[in-house]
Amino acid sequence: MVGDDSVFYTTGTRVVADGKHSWQIDKSGDGLSPTLHGGTLYTQVVEGLLALAPRDGSERWRLDSVESPGPQAPGPTLVDETLVAATRTDIVGIDLTTRETWRTAHNAMRITCLAAGERGIVSAGITDDGAVVSGYALDGTKRWEKQIPPSDIGLDLFVCLSGHDICVLTDKGRLDALDAEDGTRQWQANLSSGIVGRPALTDGLFLVLASENRTAVHAYDVQQGDAAWTQSVPHRSFSLTVIGDVVVVPLDGLENRTMVLSLADGTVEAEYRLEHELSASYVVTDGTNITHLE
Question: Residue limits of the Pyrrolo-quinoline quinone repeat domain (predicted)?
Fold first, then answer.
């Protein structure tokens, strides 16, 4: 998380700030990606949901009942003045003004994705019998639930939410485009089974990293499911970051190189090399600049 001229992140048992603010605090582990809002930093650890002062990491308040659901789970996210978080059993909403909460069971054995927007909230997770994707109103009411059979998923799935569009992608290449309000399937496609990185959804395009005979970024029209463009890249990548009208693609382990593609047609607009090995993703700081996290 980037804000207030600092980078805030969790690593193992620590919550860390680097930059204008520099501090670290030790916790019991399973720390999740933090969120900065209204001058407060929010994160989840084993002990619960923490509200911290960005300046020095001091604790302002906590909710012990909103503990981390485990390592590599999604961190809390914001919609309006509601902080939405996942626990091992529930999706929880916290009104940041009153601190009143609601809870709804998510029916997953392991939560992998959580997203919130003006049209609602969506969660996804692995179950004993495949996977489940669920949609909720902003007050926590469950609107719909979709099951994904075990034959269509390996170990992971990804969910992207933008406006009324949801795209659900499994690591075996099953792609479903759903309506955020009622879960209606708009279209379905079977992509390459070699999904190699986290996708992105923006401006009516769903962007996917896949590697079968070659590694490439694939763009699909969210409304119709048609392929918009494909751009080969020389090595696998772990994430895509959209910034304005370009897509930033860090190339994992290939001479620390990063490619910048046009969002409109996938053409290569720039390529550059960092001094240090790429080991994480990029984040937007002010809409034009990017920061690389190691």
Answer: 4-105, 132-274
